[in-house]
Design brief:
The protein has four helices and three strands; from the N terminus they run E-H-E-H-H-H-E. It has 133 residues and is of the alpha/beta class. The protein has a domain of 92 residues: NAD(P)-binding Rossmann-like Domain (Rossmann fold), CATH 3.40.50.720. The longest helix has 23 residues. The radius of gyration is 17 Å and the shape is elongated.
Length: 133
Amino acid sequence: MGPRGRHHRKQSVAADEMEWLEPREQPFERTRPRDIATEQVHDKSLAREVAASGVTVNGVAPGSILWEGGGWHRRQQADPEGIAEFIRHEMPLGRFGTVDEVAGVVAFVCSKQASLLSGASIAVDGAQGRSNI
């Protein structure tokens, strides 16, 4: 607990900000694992630094999330067969994640029930990620 009995949470969501780039501009395969690993190291280090103050620090790493108007939605509209093939080969659960699924994890991580959770990185990717970090 922090000052005055308050719980303090710092969460980072390692979103794939490159999603909004056009496919020909997207260096997804080369940069995403490194960026996530950097975020994980930062969160773990910060968690240790601020723990004595009652602050918890965690990361949430979403996989490919589909929402209307988002990059995956636009690609799905433009190339349904290509995206279906991508899903078959790259997504073990056979589907995109949803905003609500990620939000549920973030809500839990920010809750009182997660008061011992600190320095963690939680993949919300349906086993899509390949990193063991």
